[in-house]
Amino acid sequence: MKRRRRVYEGKAKILYEGPEPGTLVQHFKDDATAFNKRKHEIVDGKGVLNNRISEHIFTNLNEIGIPTHFLRRLNMREQLIKEVEIIPLEVVVRNIAAGSIVTRLGAEEGTQLSRSIIEFYYKNDELDDPIVSEEHITAFGWATPPEIDDIMSLAIRINDFLCGMFISVGIRLVDFKMEFGRHYEDDMMRIVLADEISPDSCRLWDTKTNDKMDKDRFRQELGGMLEAYREVARRLGVLTENEPVTKGTGPVLVKTESED
Ligand code: TMP
Ligand code: ASP
Predict the structure, then answer these.
(1) What is the pTM of this model?
(2) Number of domains, the chain
């Protein structure tokens, strides 16, 4: 196999140069990390599941007219994406109080928020991704006021769509994190959704049992992380019913196009 140029390596993904100019290959690793990598494990098959779940979500978002970087899935662990200039912000939408809003503001976990809240964090591991305001974002030049407006209106549309998508399969979307990028085409720039949306970057609770079906299983050492991700994939129709959980070999997929 031809060697590819690695453009960027993050905690859970690697970006390689794509087959055509303006494209990249996004590769999903099995690494699970939390607390800025202070906790780190390999979870066999996680990358395959996140690739499929994120593909499903981004395909649906593209179909309803939300601009994203996603072009198509290439194989079990990789997808072809448009090259974008990543805006160094983690954009979090919260519907129900959990995680850092509980520790920071003393909200009670599980409280339905009176309106969805959008928060911005400066994407910088050395600083532990601190929360920032629109004032910081514009003063430090991370994004302009019109770009922040675009990001906020996309974030609300994405949240509305995902809440509906998950509730229809018995899952509450508690909160989730997004990243956005600038995509340049023919002298035009537009803000597009980038990165991934998967159980690594969402809080997902079963509507009946309140069971956690996301990375909190790993963060809080609850066990059963892979099984929970598989269940999310199964409910979204990404995996076949009744497949045994085979740790080690990774999950079996519904479709088998050009897998490698
Ligand atoms: P938080 O409650 O820890 O601030 O997290 C809010 C949401 O963002 C939650 O769904 C998990 C997700 N998240 C990430 O995807 N990456 C991160 O580095 C952090 C801290 C949170
Ligand atoms: N993604 C971050 C890390 O790897 C934090 C988290 O998701 O909790 O440390």
Answers:
(1) 0.93
(2) 2
